From TrEMBL:
One GO cellular component term: plasma membrane
Stored CDD domains: TmCorA-like
Name of this protein: Magnesium transporter
UniProt GO MF annotations: cobalt ion binding; cobalt ion transmembrane transporter activity; magnesium ion binding; magnesium ion transmembrane transporter activity
Primary residence: membrane
Keywords: Cell membrane, Membrane, Transmembrane, Transmembrane helix, Transport
Lineage of source species: Bacteria, Bacillati, Actinomycetota, Actinomycetes, Streptosporangiales
Positions of region (Disordered): 1-26
UniProt entry tagged with the keyword Transmembrane helix: yes
Membrane topology: Multi-pass membrane protein
Length: 344
């Protein structure tokens, strides 16, 4: 398929840089690369050809940066505002002649979940991706397009490019939920560890529940996005690509179900932690009570023999012997009884 410029390359024609990184452009014709790295202003020139599909990627653009491509594709100001605004919900909006898509790419780094927002404008023969930062690896997306065994670009349409993007996004969501699953296993090991570090369990379980809630907020709406794309009356996805999008839809269901399952697992682990903590407290109380009972015997005996009144053995050597024997026999007897009942 040929080489493509890296995102870190800053060389290019004057006026071809938008946002925090240079734009990425590519045009296909008949399923083969026609051109790439061309200026944004030439997008309309390639789209004027009836058999060319165009992709444009913008990283960290501002509202005025999108003015050029907005004029090129005739984008609605509301859609442009959504593309440059942060923290939009995952959604698919239909406009006259194009669709606007907003999704999130999760990344787990040292137990912390980071979200990278990615938007896209989709027309019949063009797709414009808008990234808020460089967290989404666009080179991986290009490799997925280039290495696909079935390019699906024999006819001019951008649906296959959209499929590659959504497939990559959902795969990254699966990787994120897998990482959170591994974290849940680590928390489970801590819960059943003999050391039982309570503060560590509380900290990691809280962070895990927060990450799962954040991932669920961006994963569940993906079902609605795929459902809308697969609607026959909208005719967004060509019939040959329906099985591909259906496969992505199945993966979105897996992400949502996996996330819900992990949330239930963490809730069960917290309940188990409380139960184990209560059981450990009961064990400690049994031991403390047992030792208190054993210590009470010599206290009672010495207290009895410490009375200032005459009693059998008072001021006699035999009294000391009797009291010592009573203390030893009763203490050892109580220890053996408690040990047999696993109270010590």
């Amino acid at each position: 398929m040929g080489s493509h410029p890296s995102e870190t390359d800053v060389e290019g024609e004057p006026g071809n840089r938008i946002g925090s990184a240079p734009p990425r452009t590519r045009a296909w014709r008949g399923g083969k690369i026609e051109a790439q790295g061309f200026p944004v202003a030439k997008v309309s020139d390639y789209l004027a050809r009836p058999d060319v599909v165009v992709w444009l990627d913008l990283c960290g653009p501002r509202h005025e940066d999108l003015r050029v491509i907005s004029d090129e594709l005739g984008l609605d100001p509301v859609a442009v505002e959504d593309a440059v605004s942060r923290h939009e919900r995952a959604k698919l909006d239909r406009y006259d002649g194009y669709a606007f898509l907003n999704v999130y790419v999760p990344q787990v780094d040292d137990g912390e979940l980071v979200m990278h927002e990615v938007s896209a404008f989709l027309t019949e023969r063009a797709i414009v991706t808008v990234r808020q930062d460089r967290g989404f690896d666009v080179d991986a997306l290009i490799r997925r397009w280039d290495e696909s065994p079935d390019a699906g670009l024999g006819e001019p349409n951008a649906a296959f490019l959209l499929y590659g993007m959504l497939d990559l996004v959902v795969d990254l969501q699966l990787e994120a939920v897998q990482a959170l699953d591994d974290e849940a296993d680590a928390v489970e090991d801590l819960v059943f560890d003999d050391v039982f570090p309570v503060k560590e369990i509380q900290r990691r379980s809280y962070r895990l529940r927060k990450n799962l809630a954040a991932l669920r907020r961006v994963a569940v709406p993906m079902r609605e996005v795929l459902n809308t794309l697969l609607r026959r009356d909208l005719r967004v996805v060509p019939a040959p690509l329906v099985p591909y999008f259906q496969d992505v839809y199945d993966h979105t269901l897996r992400v949502a179900e996996w996330t819900d399952g992990l949330r239930d697992l963490i809730a069960d682990l917290l309940d188990t932690r409380l139960a184990l903590q209560s059981n450990r407290m009961n064990e400690v109380m049994k031991k403390v009570t047992s030792w208190a009972a054993i210590i009470a015997v010599p206290t009672a005996v010495t207290g009895f023999y410490g009375q200032n009144v005459p009693y059998p053995g008072f001021s006699a050597h035999s009294g000391f012997i009797v009291s010592t024997v009573v203390i030893v026999v009763c203490s050892v007897g109580l220890y053996l009884i408690f040990k047999r009942r696993n109270w010590l």
